[in-house]
């Protein structure tokens, strides 16, 4: 397979309640047995990555939450090729502890671990665990120092760093990770999130959006990254509803929204919109999300990967054409739907990618 293929990740359901805030039946379980099997199904289906979630308290019904780094390690131990992205929050984690944890996990798993640096949006959670809550752009200033320190510790001996949040003095980590440096993902939509991605992150994750909305974000980030002489790749969230007919897929979406839990959605919306609005330019995640968008708490319906395998494959290739490198997928019934996606959607994506590449070569010749 050529290097120029779009990559796929799935959300690890390591918190209870699935990925939609709805009372619809979900055959998804947050426990380890279900998740080990899911990781194996995803690996066989052709997924490249699994993304865990970091959560310390319930927020939108996610009553139970497994810790993300420990859980990611368990999934790596149950697989052989899949990369698992452990989500962490600067604040509760320090770069020294995380650098060491990840170096060890990387050594134990043949170099397959990555991290997602989450800057935080949920003030109640920070208050509950006694962590100071910084204002929006300060959270990103801290995250950027966190990432700079992480990379420094992983790649340099006698690392010295003097920041406003973290300090290191002649520090040498041994052993270092097996990979030169494990990939660093980061999420967010605000100006501060994008600017940080364009300076230090390997991957930028954004909430779901239309192709036009994503294109605007990608163009903005890539222009800034080029000016900084930095390379960053882009992943987009999508809640996938793939069914044999479009009617079936649309009916599932309608049921999810009809059975949405308004109290939980509104509680989440209030906390999330506070986070979005609190970025100075008001462009943060969720700043413009409607009630329906919020039922999938990372705006996953907006990406519109809802329909037949053919329709979904075409939309994925359209995302790739505007500069998306990875689709991060959520599902209603994870195990069954990840398997279906691998069997029905992924081969069509690869076929379309090959056709496009062949057409390009023919045009050049
Ligand atoms: C794909 C993706 C995954 C995320 N995972 C988590 C998570 O596990 N835990 C969490 O608290 N926030 C998570 N976030 C939230 C972001 O890190 C960030 O705090 C939020 O998007 C608000 O950012 P903004 O105000 O810069 O837009 C995630 C965001 C995205 C796009």
From TrEMBL:
The keyword ATP-binding does not apply. SUPFAM superfamilies: Bacterial luciferase-like (SSF51679). Pfam families: Bac_luciferase (PF00296). GO terms for biological process: alkanesulfonate catabolic process. The keyword Flavoprotein applies. Transmembrane segments: none annotated. Residues 8-325 form the Luciferase-like domain. It comes from the Bacteria. Keywords: Flavoprotein, FMN, Monooxygenase, Oxidoreductase. InterPro entries: DMSO2_SphG (IPR024014), Luciferase-like_dom (IPR011251), Luciferase-like_sf (IPR036661), SsuD_RutA_monooxygenase (IPR050172). This is Dimethyl sulfone monooxygenase SfnG.
